[in-house]
């Protein structure tokens, strides 16, 4: 086959989702937030909810997430994205609000919000990006920072006798009756990115079916604040983070499980 003949047989296998804005990212090299936003945009396109989706961001590296989507979005106070999303859903049940929150936001200042929104079983979708550190505010220790892990507030590594132990949010929240679907996925290689997309899609389908709250925790690298290059950061996620935060489904209702067959 000649080069010209080969060109004639080529077809597009992958393209930018229509829901994803055409703009340069502000994220650091090797950060996982851009991957998460692309996966959300793909799911919004595939579920045909572009005119109903609303991104509710909070303080942290996710704060300007709405700038990367072509659908509606707004910003909440620090940790209060679930409360804002609750108001949207209760006032306009036909809309599909979702939050994007980091671990410093969701598991620290917003921990009461996420606990009670789960206890109430609000029909929302929560995207929880866990990179085990405060990314935007200077690299301080977060509730999910691993034992002996460096941060600017634990330069000698996190020690349990002074800083306590990392909080496994998905496991803790899965003990509540309200959530219909809670899972933890990762971004450390292409296979796990594909699994992450399936989890995000199931979370949105759970909301669309009116089954209650869905939460997807996503383990993501933060090379700059971890003081690692991007490759080492991915290795850290695959090794250390998945040991502390095992991947898998921690809660899934029978009705939500039935939605998996089409993923």
How would you characterize this protein structure?
With about 260 residues, the protein is of the alpha/beta class. The protein has a single domain (about 25-135, about 165-250), classed as Thiamin diphosphate (ThDP)-binding fold, Pyr/PP domains (Rossmann fold, 3-Layer(aba) Sandwich). The chain is about 40% helix and about 15% strand. The protein contains eleven helices and seven strands. It has helices at about 5-10, 35-45, 80-90, 105-110, 110-120, 160-165, 170-175, 190-210, 225, 230-245, 255-260, and strands spanning about 55, 70-75, 95-100, 125-130, 180-185, 215-220, 250. A seven-stranded mixed β-sheet has the order 2-1-3-4-6-5-7, sandwiched between helices. Helix 8 (about 190-210) links the parallel strand 5 and strand 6. It is globular, with a radius of gyration of 19 Å. The mean pLDDT is about 95.
Outline of this structure?
By secondary structure, the protein is α/β, with parallel strands linked by helices. The chain is built from 11 helices and 7 strands.
Structural class: alpha/beta
Low-confidence stretches: none
Here the CATH topology equals Rossmann fold
3D shape: globular
User: How many beta strands in the DSSP annotation?
Assistant: 7
Helix amount, in percent? 25-40%
Mean pLDDT: 93
Q: Report the span from N to C terminus.
A: 37 Å
Number of domains: 1
Strand content: 5-15%
Any idea what the CATH superfamily is called? Answer: Thiamin diphosphate (ThDP)-binding fold, Pyr/PP domains
Strand order of the largest sheet: 2-1-3-4-6-5-7
Largest sheet: 7 strands, mixed
| CATH architectural category | 3-Layer(aba) Sandwich
Main CATH class: Alpha Beta
With helices defined by DSSP (H or I, 4 residues minimum), what is the helix count? 11
> What is the string of SSEs from the N terminus onward?
HHEEHEHHEHHEHEHHEH
Rounded to an integer in angstroms, the radius of gyration calculated over CA atoms is 19 Å
